[in-house]
């Protein structure tokens, strides 16, 4: 049996390779043109009017570019070199200033303590394997945010009664058999990549274990979404 951390590293490698595949890079390049969704724009109404913003899992720069257009100082990070290169090109084309960096693992961010006034994590939380790793990730984001700053997070969710239908049986089972430490909700898209599906209650419960204060947990359908995402604001308590 492999150590848990070895399996986490292997799953993270699968995620990096998946998002660096040409079809994924091309998909997110096309997505840049769509800008923020209505629900994302609603969530970011409380983004600070100035300061330094970290976009974690920036993809091809879709959210980073929109935030940079507001005059904010944006740093985007992603595990896919292809997406980071695309984000840089997209920012140049949009004539905005933003910095983009490639990272190996979101559990270790290459920034000093209290470096940012806010952070974004749009539809990326589910690609971190194991609850322990996800909570380490949240603690790391907490570290690089200034006291009182917020993490704006969106995550896919599945209905309770369809939780297990998102496992794509045969191809999933073949890949899952390679790992001993998978959790309920862990799955593989047609045997590729890795994703952890959350129910709404499961996501809320897990986020409540982070060092952040959970300020907002909103069904996106109520603000122009499709009901398949939760909009979250997690805030670092201000220093007393």
Unreliable sequence segments: none
Order of helices and strands: HHHEHEHEEHEHEEHEE
Number of domains: 1
CATH homologous superfamily placement: Vaccinia Virus protein VP39
From the N-terminal CA to the C-terminal CA, the straight-line distance is 47 Å
Our estimate of the beta-strand percent is 15-25%
* The CATH top-level class label: Alpha Beta
CATH architecture: 3-Layer(aba) Sandwich
Q: What's the shape? A: globular
Strand numbers in spatial order across the main sheet = 3-2-1-4-5-9-8
CATH topology name = Rossmann fold
Q: Which range best describes the helical content: under 10%, 10-25%, 25-40%, 40-55%, 55-70% or over 70%? A: 25-40%
Overall pLDDT? 93
Count of helix runs: 8
Tell me what you see in this structure.
Residues 53-148 form the Methyltransferase domain. InterPro entries: Methyltransf_25, SAM-dependent_MTases_sf. This is Methyltransferase domain-containing protein. Keywords: Methyltransferase, S-adenosyl-L-methionine, Transferase. Strands 3-2-1-4-5-9-8 form a seven-stranded mixed sheet, sandwiched between helices. It has 240 residues and is an alpha/beta fold. The radius of gyration is 17 Å and the shape is globular. The model has no long low-confidence stretch (mean pLDDT 93). Strand 1, helix 4 and strand 2 (73-78) form a beta-alpha-beta unit. It is 35% helix and 24% strand. The chain has helices at 4-20, 22-32, 38-43, 62-68, 81-94, 131-144, 169-176, 200-207; strands at 52-56, 73-78, 98-102, 116-122, 145-156, 186-189, 192-196, 213-219, 229-235. The chain contains eight helices and nine strands. The protein has a single domain (4-235), classed as Rossmann fold.
């Amino acid at each position: 049996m492999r150590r848990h951390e070895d399996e986490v590293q292997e799953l993270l490698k699968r995620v990096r390779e998946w998002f660096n595949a040409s079809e994924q890079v091309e998909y997110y390049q096309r997505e840049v043109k769509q800008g923020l969704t209505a629900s994302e724009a609603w969530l970011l109404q409380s983004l600070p009017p100035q300061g330094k913003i970290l976009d974690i899992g920036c993809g091809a720069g879709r959210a980073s570019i929109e935030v940079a257009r507001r005059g904010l100082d944006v740093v985007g990070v992603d595990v896919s070199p292809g997406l980071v290169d695309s984000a840089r090109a997209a920012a140049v084309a949009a004539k905005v200033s933003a910095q983009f960096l490639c990272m190996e693992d979101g559990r270790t961010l290459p920034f000093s303590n209290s470096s940012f006034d806010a952070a974004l994590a749009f539809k990326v939380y589910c690609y971190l394997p194991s609850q322990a790793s996800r909570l380490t990730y949240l603690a790391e984001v907490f570290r690089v945010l200034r006291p009182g700053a917020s993490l704006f997070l969106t995550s896919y969710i599945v209905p309770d009664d369809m939780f297990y239908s998102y496992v794509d049986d045969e191809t999933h089972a073949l890949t899952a058999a390679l790992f001993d430490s998978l959790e309920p909700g862990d799955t593989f898209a047609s045997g590729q990549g890795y994703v952890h599906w959350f129910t709404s209650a499961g996501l809320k419960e897990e986020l409540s274990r982070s060092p952040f204060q959970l300020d907002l947990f909103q069904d996106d359908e109520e603000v122009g979404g499709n009901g398949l995402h939760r909009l979250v604001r997690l805030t670092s308590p201000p220093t007393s």
